[in-house]
Amino acid sequence: MQVQQRRPVVALLVGWDIEPAMLQACALSAASLHADFYYFFPSGVDEERQRIQGMHLNDGQWEKGEFAYPDVVYDRMRRREVSGFTEVYRKLEHVPFTHTLRGRWGRKSIIYNMLRKDETLRRYLIPFQTLRDADAALAFIHEYQSVILKSDRGASGEGMFVVQVKEGWIEVSDQEYVHRLNDAQMRDMLQMLVPQRYCVQQLIPSVTAQGFPFHIRVHVTKNGQGEWIVGFCSPSLSLHPSIKVTNSEHAFRVSPTWEKFLAQHLNEKLGGATDRHIQRYAIQLAQFMDGELQGGFHEIGLDIGLTEQGSIRLFEAGLGLPSALFHFVEMALPAIAYSLHVAARAEQQQTEL
Length: 353
What we know:
Elements: E1 9-13, H1 20-32, E2 36-40, E3 45-46, E4 51-58, E5 61-68, E6 72-75, H2 86-91, H3 108-115, H4 119-122, E7 128-130, H5 134-144, E8 146-151, E9 161-165, E10 170-173, E11 178-181, H6 183-193, E12 198-202, E13 214-222, E14 228-238, E15 253-254, H7 258-266, H8 273-293, E16 299-306, E17 312-318, H9 328-352
Parallel strand pairs: 1-2, 1-6
Antiparallel strand pairs: 3-4, 4-5, 7-12, 8-9, 8-12, 9-10, 10-11, 13-14, 13-16, 14-15, 16-17
Helix pairs in contact: 1-9, 5-6
Protein name: YheC/YheD family protein
Organism: Paenibacillus wenxiniae
Pfam family, one: ATPgrasp_YheCD
């Protein structure tokens, strides 16, 4: 009589509601890789019984259930060692996790300064300064004329300001309103932002021929062999030319496919010069950061722009919770495959003890 082989179990740890499409993509990706899947919140872990209350997909519907501890946790909460979140990590300390860095690690300035160490990667960076001194920041603004002020920990364009030096005054856009300031008022504003951990970065025009600002989200991820790949490239255009932060909640955005963007904006195809260049750059960056941090993460979100000459410029890189407008399968499939890789590696290490 044939004995049915036990399927590995991947559990997704979430701390708040996430896109239903992402949950479904994870469940379907796990099924395609012959694994079981459920998701859970920290409150669902029963340490004494080593059981977890969670949700699993059954005939297309999410159902509550009680499950044994999984073989691996795909961590999309990423709050390890952060006050208020430590208990769930302690309860599951013997279960392998995909992400083991301290929660919310990697402010924009830390990552940017890390990349400055590499001679090749440094060429893609944009003049940048951590906002510690209002006078130094004001001098930076006058030097580069057009800059972005952004929170060191911010996401999705939240709290960003576009600052442009005009003749005799300074224009500050908060993505909704435009303010006209003199130098003294600008210095006061910068002083107020110092304790809020802001950065100031030169504004690099990244616009289509029609004048629409855009950025490209490049999702770099480890696959089922533990190797870095580019999961997807997702252009995002602001249809408000005056709103230059293209992921701002105030912008009316469109997101064409990468193939169509290449064709329309650059007259190129997939596998062409720009596509290959971005792929090489993204993987080189991921491999460099992996070496610097000695692992502990498996997903990086890069926001890049293209100058008028077609040169790549890195706006920022993040190790936080990755996001996508439409590319949930492209995000979930390598993440689940990597989760199974982590589980298999942990099981092998146990047998070798």
